[in-house]
Model the fold of this input.
Amino acid sequence: METTRRRFLKTGLLAAALLAAGGGWYRHTHPAPPHGFALDGEARAALDAIVPAILAGTLPDAPADRTRAIAATTDRVHQAILGLPLSAQQEVQDLFGLLAIGPARRLLTGLPDGWAGAREADVAAFLQAWRVHRLALLRTAYAALHDLVLGGWYSDPAHWDAIGYPGPIKELA
Done:
């Protein structure tokens, strides 16, 4: 069957409507807390899966240490997001909302199952696809995730030596 311009446009509009409906459903079932961003449930699982993909090669090898490092980084990312202006917090909340909804996750990342079962290689592949995607929105989402995770990781003074950062100037601290 040949795809016509009309069929392509209808399919695009239908997909946009489905994503908007999914976002509306998520906002209805997960109202924004009055204090700003909330990292809970599937959104936390998404970040827990994204952290090791972005920090590949820097996390500890021992499973218990690795789990603690991922959880600590996720908590620091959450704290960093809470320090953003409310409008930016809402944008990040919307991103994690889309990543939490099954159909949107499948469409945007290609991951068929939930975040808890996502393989690091699959997460790294979708992040790489977003990094070079033709849509600026996905490139921006990648950059936000990348910067938040690296900021969360390197906000811990224990990781400063790896990048040669001596810490803040003593006179300013």
User: Anything to note?
Assistant: The chain has one domain: 5-163. The radius of gyration is 18 Å.
